[in-house]
Amino acid sequence: MPKREKYSHTTYVITYVVTPLEGDAFQVSESSKKKEWIVQLNDSTCTCGKFQSKKYPCPHALAVCEKLKINPLQYVDDYYTLERYYKTYASTFSPVPELSAWPEASGVPTLFPLPPLPDVSEDEEEKEEYWEEDYWEQEEEKEDEEKKCRRILSYTL
Q1: What is the largest CA-CA distance in the chain?
Q2: How many CB atoms lie within 10 A of CB 28?
Q3: Cα dist. 87→15, 23, 74, 82, 92 in Å?
Q4: What secondary structure, in 3-state letters, does the chain show?
Q5: Is residue 6 part of a domain?
Q6: Per-residue b or e along 113-129, where b marks 16 or more CB atoms closer than 10 Å to that residue's CB
Q7: Which of 15, 18, 56, 153 is 20 to 30 Å from the Cα of 90, by its Cα?
Q8: What does the pLDDT look like over 44-101, one tens digit per residue?
Q9: Where would I find the SWIM-type domain in this sequence (predicted)?
Q10: In the chain, how many domains are there?
Q11: Which one of 53, 76, 99 terminates a domain?
């Protein structure tokens, strides 16, 4: 008899309170964490930012749809439809030629990747310092002095 695997499922339940505001705006509150968001269904926006960036309803927009008893699928972007998927891959794709066959690029700027983000273990002050303008000015001065930095790659296509 085959061994049966046990799966651990964790279910989270979040209760949102939906309050109508002016026009088509709604305030969605989570009482346990005292957080709130503003959802506007007609504009497909939420103050959490996920509704407009992912182009489908975030949990707060879903709560509003549930409150209004409307289908949330009407707020999902056309991008996610099968029809759009099929249109994307309907045309023939030609294979990319060998790198040596590529034409020389002219007028392309040299790209400099950003340095890696600081570790999570660092102090908050060090993290904030990393993003301040003074940090970047100091980095530019170091680059001028070193002329060649091993950390930064420059390349052109």
Answers
A1: 71
A2: 24
A3: 39, 37, 20, 9, 11
A4: CCCCCCCCCCCCCCCEEEEECCCCEEEEEECCCCEEEEEECCCCEECCCHHHHHCCCCHHHHHHHHHHCCCHHHHCCHHHCHHHHHHHCCCCCCCCCCHHHCCCCCCCCCCCCCCCCCCCCCCHHHHHHHHCHHHHHHHHHHHHHHCCCCCCCCCCC
A5: no
A6: eeeeeeeeeeeeeeeee
A7: 56
A8: 999 999 999 999 999 999 999 999 999 999 999 998 999 999 999 999 888 888 988 8
A9: 37-69
A10: 2
A11: 76
Same domain, 68 and 111: no
Q: Domain of 40? A: 16-76
pLDDT for res 52: 94
Handedness of CA 15, 27, 52, 33 (dihedral sign): negative
User: Where among 37, 54, 76 does a domain terminate?
Assistant: 76
Domain assignment of residue 147, yes or no: yes
**Same domain as 20, residue 62:** yes
Q: What is the percent of the chain where pLDDT is above 90?
A: 42
Q: What angle do CA 75, 76, 78 make, to 5 degrees?
A: 120
Reported confidence tier of residue 156, pLDDT bands at 50, 70, 90: very low
